[in-house]
Each structure stands twice: as C-alpha cells, then as structure tokens.
C-alpha cells in the first residue's frame, strides 16, 4: 500500500524539522517535562486516530511476544532515547546534536549483525565508515 522509500523520505523531512521545534520549545523547559507533554499529546492523537479508523479490533491479534518487543522498542526509542535527545538538544547545537542522533543506523547495523545474523557486506562496511566519519567531522 505504501511506498517504503516515500515513507522514509517523509520521515526524514519530519525528523529534520522536529529538532528546530524541539530546540525552540526547550528554552526554559526541563527535558522530562517536554517529553511528558509531547507524549501526552501524541497519545491523545493516537487514541483518537485508532477510534476514528476503527482499528481497536486489531489489538486482539497482537501476540504477547510481539507486544513485549514493541514495548521494549518504545522504552528505548520514545522514552530513554528521546529524553537523552532532549537533554542533548537543550544544551547543544542542533547542527551537531541532530546528526549524531541520526547516526543511530550505525548502532542498528552492528546489532543487526550480532543479534539478528544479518550479513556483513562491503556496502554496509562503507556505510558504517561514512557514518563514523561524519560524526568525527562534527567535532570540528
């Protein structure tokens, strides 16, 4: 139904816009307060969307194993990762913080190889090198 690359492009655009709003909003606000406000608003929007789209029935089809993995993903990304990101954004420069945070595919690539048995390829090694080089260049 959706084109994966179109959706990835949209995610890139939205994730590129978001740090600007985050940096502006974090002015005098504590990162934990900001994350709580953000999460409450998103939760309300999701509850309304699930209700309007009639997808509550799909929850019955979800397994306990899948739910556990999604909960762990949410704790890592939407709670711990986002909170660390807000602290970094509050006290750092958007132009330095955002690219470092955006280097998360390097971590995912390495963990995918170690825990999911994904293959190491020449292109993955080159990509990992380029990501690491970009992070090092941001130091200057």
TrEMBL record:
It is a multi-pass membrane protein. The keyword Transmembrane helix applies. InterPro entries: AA-Vitamin_Transporters, EamA_dom, EmrE-like. It comes from the Bacteria. Pfam families: EamA. Residues 4-138 form the EamA domain. It is found in: Cell membrane. Keywords: Cell membrane, Membrane, Transmembrane, Transmembrane helix. Belongs to the EamA transporter family. This is EamA family transporter. It comes from Pelosinus baikalensis.
